[in-house]
Each structure stands twice: as C-alpha cells, then as structure tokens.
Backbone:
C-alpha cells in the first residue's frame, strides 16, 4: 500500500526542495492539488528534482483545458518522470469553471466521460496506432500531423484517474478510468454504500484499479496534539460539507440537514458557526485518530474495505505540516512508510 502526501503547488524551486524532503521522509508520492497554482508545473518540478516519488495531479481541472492540451502535458510528464506520473482530473464546480475560467460546465458528467474517451483517442494517436479521430457531443479532434505529435513514450501511457463523488461519476470512473480520486469528505459508510458498489457496477476486473483516498488525521502523543488535528479536520469538513452535492454523505450517517446548516452559517460569514455544526460525533466518521505509533495501523484498518482495489491513502494534513518548523512532517512520513509495510 503506497501512502502519499497531499500538497498544493508553491514556487517551483521551493517545490523541488519539498519533493526531495517528502521522499526522504518516507512518502511514496505526491498528490498535487490545483488551486492558486497549476498542478502540472509542480509535477514537472518534482519529476526533474531527482526524488524517488510517484507523482499525481489530485486533481487538475479538466474543462478549461482542451483534451489535447491535457493529453500533451500528461505525455510529457510521463516522459520526464520515467512513467511515474498519473493524470488525475476533475470537473471542479460550476462557479469556478464558468466564472473563474470562463469555460463551459454543463453537462458535467457526460462531458467528463467524453473528456476521458478523448484522452484515450489522443494517446492512441500519439503512439502512432491510429490517426486522430474523435467525434463527440462536446469535443471533436481530427488533426494531428506527425510534426505536432510528441511520439511514442518509452514507458506506459499516463494513467487517467477521475475525481468522483456521486454514483454516476463513480460508475463512469470504474468503466473508463484507471483510478479514482475519492473526495476528502469520505467515511467508511460512504465506501460501503456508495463508492464500492458503484465502482463494481462497471463489471470490469478492478483489482488493479487505483483508489486514492484522502484521509483527515488527528494524531499526536498528547491530547493537545490530537485536538489540533481534530479542529483542522473539523474546519475542512465544514468547508467541503457546505457543497449541496455532498449533502448525501451526511445523510448516510443520520445527520440530515447538515449541509443546510453549514450554508446558512457560510452565508452569514460565520466560519466559527460552520465549524460548530460539525459535532464530535459527526467528525469521528471522517477522521483517523491515534498516537504516532498507532496511526499506521489505524490507516490500514480504515482502508481495509477498499483493499479489493489498489488503495493508496493520501494524508491530507501532512503537506501543511512541512511549514510547522518542527519534525511533524517527518513523523507523517514515517507513518506513511510504516503503513505501507502493513
């Protein structure tokens, strides 16, 4: 079981130092989010720094980039990393796609499916297996002169992993993807009732299908340390939980109406009120807790229901610990190393 660190992008020279530090600490790889900085440039920096790491976008925003742009970038990153790059893509949410990127969002599910299929067609054309020819409702690709193709790779095609939360997107990922990026707002109940049955609906052999599962952690050898992780996790659960499309995850746990309460507090600008909506009993479903010695086994136990796939935990709060000014980040890396051996 590979255990990764989740991180956003930073200044590229700094990111190379972070990548080397992550490898030395014991992480198997980097899962790089996309927010204020692009995920792809950070991946390139990591791929070229000499660190022994897997690299994945987790996730890059798909719709503002044409499938050709994304495929070309993924192809070069696969080459630069000697085959250790994975392309993780997702639709983002409507407001960002339409208002920040000035791109088309609807219909997100079918558009995302077509995007993945278009990437496959481009990959085949890059390999020289067939001329580029893809016709869909949202994307049409039919021109790739030889001088504009990057040519074959000496490694396998970069895997395509899809961010998915709801049943439709999970079924699509299971049918057409190489892996899935589970949302950070996940619980064992969600694994049982939503994630696993919808992936299985594809009918494919998914034993090698990669499931990236971000985990919130409350870890430490003192109550105070664990409380800090718990409150950081509570803040993130309240933030993510304010998205209407994710309300069913609370409903599955018997906490109906949680998203409505979060949105009301958010609309009032009451961040403390948002956090207060997430009770300790509710929070416990989302957080893996324990001492530093206990955490590796707790992570393995949390991920055991997902072991029918290639489950790869991602430590959500570990990346921020790199700026703590102490050895917390290295402790997380040691947890990743020990969890991988279980």
Residues:
């Amino acid at each position: 079981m590979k255990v990764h660190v989740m991180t956003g992008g930073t200044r590229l020279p700094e990111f190379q130092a972070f990548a080397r530090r992550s490898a030395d600490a014991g992480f198997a790889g980097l899962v790089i989010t996309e927010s204020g900085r692009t995920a792809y440039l950070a991946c390139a920096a990591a791929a070229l720094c000499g660190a022994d790491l897997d690299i994945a976008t987790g996730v890059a925003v798909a719709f503002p980039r044409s499938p050709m742009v994304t495929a070309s970038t993924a192809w070069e990153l696969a080459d630069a990393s000697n085959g250790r790059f994975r392309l993780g893509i997702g639709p983002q949410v409507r407001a960002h796609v339409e208002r920040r990127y000035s791109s088309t969002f609807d219909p997100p599910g079918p558009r995302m499916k077509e995007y993945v299929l278009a990437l496959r067609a481009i990959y085949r054309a890059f390999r020289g297996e067939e001329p580029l020819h893809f016709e869909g409702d949202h994307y049409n690709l039919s021109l790739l002169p030889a001088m504009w193709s990057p040519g074959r790779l000496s490694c396998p095609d970069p895997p395509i992993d899809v961010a998915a939360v709801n049943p439709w997107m999970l079924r699509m990922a299971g049918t057409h993807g190489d892996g899935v990026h589970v949302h950070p707002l996940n619980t064992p109940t969600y694994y049982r009732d939503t994630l696993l049955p919808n992936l299985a609906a594809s009918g494919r052999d998914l034993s090698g299908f990669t499931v990236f599962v971000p985990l919130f952690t409350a870890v430490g050898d003192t109550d105070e340390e664990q409380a800090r992780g718990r409150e950081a996790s509570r803040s993130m659960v309240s933030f993510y939980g304010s998205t209407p499309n994710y309300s069913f995850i609370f409903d599955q746990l018997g906490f109906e109406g949680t998203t409505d309460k979060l949105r009301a507090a958010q609309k009032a600008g009451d961040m403390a009120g948002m956090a207060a909506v997430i009770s300790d009993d509710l929070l416990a479903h989302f957080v893996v807790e324990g001492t530093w010695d206990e955490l590796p086994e707790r992570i393995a136990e949390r991920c055991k229901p997902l072991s029918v796939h290639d489950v790869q935990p991602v430590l959500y709060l570990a990346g921020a610990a790199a700026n703590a000014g102490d050895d917390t980040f290295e402790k997380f890396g040691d947890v990743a190393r020990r969890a991988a051996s279980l």
User: Anything to note?
Assistant: The radius of gyration is 20 Å. Residues 108-126 form the longest helix (19 residues). The CA atoms of residues 37 and 271 lie 25 Å apart.
